[in-house]
Amino acid sequence: MSEIADKVKKIVVEHLGVDESKVTPDASFIDDLGADSLDTVELVMAFEEAFSVEIPEDAAEKITTVKDAIDYIEKQKAA
Amino acid sequence: MFRLDGKVALVTGASGGIGREIARALHAQGAVVVLSGTRQGVLEDVAASIGEQGGAERLHVCAADLSDAAAADALIASAEEKAGAPLAILVNNAGLTRDTLAIRMKDDDWQRVLDVDLAAPFRLCRAALKGMLRRRAGRIVNIASVVGVTGNAGQANYAAAKAGMIGMGKSLAQEAGSRGVTVNTVAPGFVQTAMTDVLPDAQKEKLVGSIPLGRMGQPQDIAPAVVYLASDEAGWVTGATLHVNGGMAMV
């Protein structure tokens, strides 16, 4: 797993207070990890801060799973 | 009831008549109070006067010019640094007026009032909410005005800002509710302060005539409403506007 993936996972575990084993790539923040809409906004803001990237509103809406977040950040960092 | 022991509270406009009374009342309930305003010297005097009865170590001063967006953005963090603990209570009390009839109102009269009375409170709410949501606790009390609901000739700018504050508070209350953070508004009527001292006597007499309780308000009439909304006991009250106006407008 990449460094970015590790960090994303850590942020999700910390923020949502869920067990690390549940934070699989396909896990949906809302459906699988018990997040509400405010949690997802706070997660996106935590990602922005941790990775020094800006995630615009339309992109943020599409980030619904752990993998979505990792892919988006990796793409931004590669660009 | 309504004890606030050890809770950090920030009061903007704390050098004004209502602001200093709010600071005094929160402090009397045990809160650690950070006083903000534009004039450092006056704030220090207010802090010294509140601290005379004891608890001076629970008073801090943090001057900021809220017409400066960057200063407003930074105020929550500097207040928390001064107090040495996260913010539990935010009281957006600072405000100014630039009264004149609309047909004579300059863009600058409009913009300055909207900036200080509405944009700055939003900036402070935004900054405060980030931490409050994370901590699952917090109280925001915005000080609006009866004219935000009734309107008032000569105050199109001020009434718009205060009405905006009420709508903003209701929106924030809905956003923050799931985290136990409450956002409420206190809407004072005509209170005897420097802001209303400038009104002509004839207008003041007419105003008092329209108040069922027969007198202008005092800052001491307003501060207890803020204490209540800041307390744990008000935990099931959010998005509310508490009108404290001697019955002048029953809404």
From TrEMBL, chain A:
The keyword Cytoplasm applies. Residues 2-77 form the Carrier domain. Pathway: Glycolipid biosynthesis; KDO(2)-lipid A biosynthesis; Lipid metabolism; fatty acid biosynthesis. One of its GO terms (cellular component) is cytosol. Belongs to the acyl carrier protein (ACP) family. NCBIfam families: acyl_carrier, PRK00982.1-2, PRK00982.1-3, PRK00982.1-4, PRK00982.1-5. PANTHER family: ACYL CARRIER PROTEIN, CARRIER DOMAIN-CONTAINING PROTEIN. This is Acyl carrier protein. It comes from Acidomonas methanolica NBRC 104435. The gene is acpP.
From TrEMBL, chain B:
InterPro entries: 3oxo_ACP_reduc, KR_dom, NAD(P)-bd_dom_sf, Sc_DH/Rdtase_CS, SDR, SDR_fam. Residues 7-222 form the Ketoreductase domain. Keywords: Fatty acid biosynthesis, Fatty acid metabolism, Lipid biosynthesis, Lipid metabolism, NADP, Oxidoreductase. Coiled coil: none annotated. It is an enzyme of class 1 (oxidoreductase). Pathway: Lipid metabolism; fatty acid biosynthesis. Pfam families: adh_short_C2 (PF13561). PROSITE patterns: ADH_SHORT. It catalyses: a (3R)-hydroxyacyl-[ACP] + NADP(+) = a 3-oxoacyl-[ACP] + NADPH + H(+). One of its GO terms (biological process) is fatty acid biosynthetic process. GO terms for molecular function: 3-oxoacyl-[acyl-carrier-protein] reductase (NADPH) activity; NAD binding. Belongs to the short-chain dehydrogenases/reductases (SDR) family. Catalyzes the NADPH-dependent reduction of beta-ketoacyl-ACP substrates to beta-hydroxyacyl-ACP products, the first reductive step in the elongation cycle of fatty acid biosynthesis. Homotetramer. This is 3-oxoacyl-[acyl-carrier-protein] reductase. The lineage of its organism: Bacteria, Pseudomonadati, Pseudomonadota, Alphaproteobacteria, Acetobacterales.
